[in-house]
Write a structure and sequence with these properties.
Layout: E1 13-17, E2 23-27, E3 32-33, H1 40-49, E4 62-68, H2 74-85, E5 89-96, H3 100-106, H4 109-112, H5 117-127, E6 131-132, H6 135-146, E7 150-155, H7 169-177, E8 179-187, H8 192-200, E9 204-208, E10 223-226, E11 236-237, H9 241-246, H10 264-276, H11 283-290
Parallel strand pairs: 4-5, 4-7, 5-6, 7-8
Antiparallel strand pairs: 1-2, 2-3, 8-10, 9-10, 9-11
Helix pairs in contact: 1-2, 2-5, 6-7, 7-8
This protein binds S-adenosylmethionine.
S-adenosylmethionine binds at residues 34, 69-72, 74-75, 95-98, 101, 134-135, 156-158, 163, 165-166.
Length: 305
């Protein structure tokens, strides 16, 4: 494997275990785990693959997938297995800034032992062609190949509170343009700003069925978006009344990054000012009404035990 030079986060990633024992990483830089505390593989299946509707594709057909933030390659490995089981050809574009998560995962027995040998080998082969760099730039460079072609976009960046660069109105415009007419974007993220930006780009939205054992009953377990109407059949669900109202508060003010080069701090500050002058309902009133805490920041990605 040819690894690119990148020293942005060296030494700041720690291998850890999710509740189901699956391998994950904890990022000191972002103060966030790479996966849900429930389990990395479980999350890949429930949040990213189940809502993709792979059953819509006949055996032998080609599935075109854009994967944002490949990280350890857990979502990629689960996708590879699903394609193999369904006899789908995979055309895949993986985007990632930092080679370290994949290097750490592939060098770790606990990561490798989660899959049959052939899956690990297929993952190594697949990830050898990752488009390394800031996804804001690499995706721009891929637009001519991707516009209107992707059956599935897996969006697995760190949450908007810590990585707004990959959830801005402008970046989500680029991402939305990649979707084929019946294509689907899947993400764990249920932030109002992200949902509102996807709506602004003309996509139809659905929530994801809350995962078993979730204490956050009124929150769906993520977001699915498509240029076409989405069937509200499991695991896709309509937004709860609480989520619909959330979209009418200041929480829905988008992150803006017009140059595609803003830092997280710049993007956050610009949004804070925008929220103050927006005239939209304050989120604290909404929080009181629905008895919500400030819990969205880490989007369920707390340090796994
Ligand atoms: C939540 S983790 C991804 C988890 C991954 N899907 C997995 O299964 O391990 C977020 C990833 O986004 C990457 N990242 C952060 N900023 C980025 C950027 N601007 N462009 C591309 N990738 C970025 C991080 O290096 C990290 O690997």
């Amino acid at each position: 494997m040819n690894w690119p030079d990148y020293s942005g986060a060296e030494g700041l990633l720690k291998p850890c275990r999710c509740k189901d024992g699956s391998f994950s990483l904890w990022s000191e830089d972002y103060g966030q785990a790479f996966h849900s505390e429930r389990g990395a593989i479980q999350e890949a299946q429930d949040t990213f693959l189940a809502p993709a509707g792979l059953e819509r594709f006949a055996p032998g057909s080609t599935l075109r997938v854009l994967e944002l933030c490949v990280g350890t390659g857990t979502n990629t490995a689960v996708l590879l297995e699903a394609c193999q089981q369904r006899q789908l050809q995979l055309q895949w574009w993986g985007l990632e800034l930092d080679p370290q998560p994949l290097q750490l995962a592939l060098a770790d027995q606990r990561f490798q032992q989660q899959w049959p040998h052939q899956t690990v080998e297929a993952l190594k082969k697949q990830t050898a062609s990752i488009h390394w760099g800031d996804a804001r730039q690499t995706l721009r460079g891929l637009q001519s190949q991707l516009v209107g072609r992707c059956d599935l976009v897996i969006h697995d960046a760190f949450s908007p509170g810590v990585c707004p660069q990959l959830w801005s109105l402008e970046f989500l415009a680029l991402v939305s343009q990649c979707l084929a007419p019946q294509g689907r974007l899947t993400t764990y993220c249920s932030a109002a700003s992200v949902r509102q930006s996807l709506l602004t780009h003309g996509l139809q939205l659905a929530g994801l069925k809350p995962h078993a054992g979730s204490a956050r009953h009124q929150w769906s377990g993520g977001t699915v978006a498509s240029p076409s109407e989405l069937p509200l059949a499991e695991p896709l669900v309509a937004f709860s009344l609480m989520e619909q109202e959330h979209l009418r508060t200041q929480a829905a003010v988008p992150y803006l990054d017009p140059t595609g080069q803003g830092t997280a701090a710049e993007i956050q500050e610009q949004r804070r000012q925008q929220q103050q002058s927006s005239g939209q309902l304050s989120t604290s009133a909404w929080r009181r009404r629905w008895q919500q805490g400030e819990g969205l920041r880490n989007a369920g990605r707390f340090p796994p035990s």
